[in-house]
Specification:
This protein is about 40% helix and about 15% strand. The protein is an alpha/beta fold. The protein has a 7-stranded parallel beta sheet, sandwiched between helices. Strands 7-9-11 form a 3-stranded mixed beta sheet. It is globular, with a radius of gyration of 19 Å. The two termini are about 30 Å apart. Keywords: Carbohydrate metabolism, NADP.
Amino acid sequence: MKILITGAGGFLGQFLARKLLEDSSNQLVLTDVIDCPIPKGSKHPDNAKVIKGDIFQEIDNLVTKDLDAVYIFHGIMSSGSEANFDLGMKVNVDGTKLMLEKLRHTTPGIRVIYASSQAVYGRPFPDVITEDVFPTPEGSYGAEKLICEVLINDYTRRGFIDGLSTRFPTISVRPGKPTQAASSFISGIIREPMAEKECVVPVKDRSFPSWVCSPRTLINNLLHALTLPSDALPSHKRSVNMPGLLATVQDMMDALAKVGGEDKLQYIKEEDDAELGKILYTWAYKFDNKLALSLGFKPDTSFEQAVREYVDWMKEQEQLGA
């Protein structure tokens, strides 16, 4: 298959690209506005091509008639979208619509997997959230994701694409540096102390809950999404809440202590951040993933396992000299 990944310079695009490059029959086009390397340790690195640049400028080079599938990962994160409305709308909405329009006219019926978010939901929350709960986002990021979901639905209903919107839980543990996401601390609470660096948790509430998923589990689910039959969902309802698990700040600290050692807890600083709190407390944290599970998507086993996977990944990166 020939597969395009937008936003491929981010950790998720890099993880996915490396996994896809395990198969010699896959050809990848990786694009981002930032440096977008072919992941180290890839089994078939020669099967990937990198196009660095803005989607608005490179769209004709990115979308070609021989494409078989597209993963749309590019975007401005939650805090960034809230801080800069115009930028968030341009990148998250206009950039996605441009991509869909180009695909519609160049490769009609192509499989498109869109990275959406649980941020499409807003208060008041029911006891448990399913896809039947009407999304009412309380932030610009969630609103932009929902707009794109509606586009994915209608473009699929019309036969322009074969789309699927995958609503991500918060991904933890993310490697790399902190991001503009309001949820960045949910990875930082593990990643920074493991590197003997300070992490500021912006809520002084250890019972604060988050709906999370490990990178490995999400990548496996994204690969599964590539093979999902077109008729697995109605043509006008293409959004699925990806499997996750509930973890509180205390759960995360317990996992850090168990895997990394009690001494790592000294690097965690807890203080209320009013601006981030306005975003964080609008996010849902308890989901019923029956739909996703019925479609063959898989959940994590525990947050501790996610931490252990991160430690294993770091050791592997050291061996690769990354």
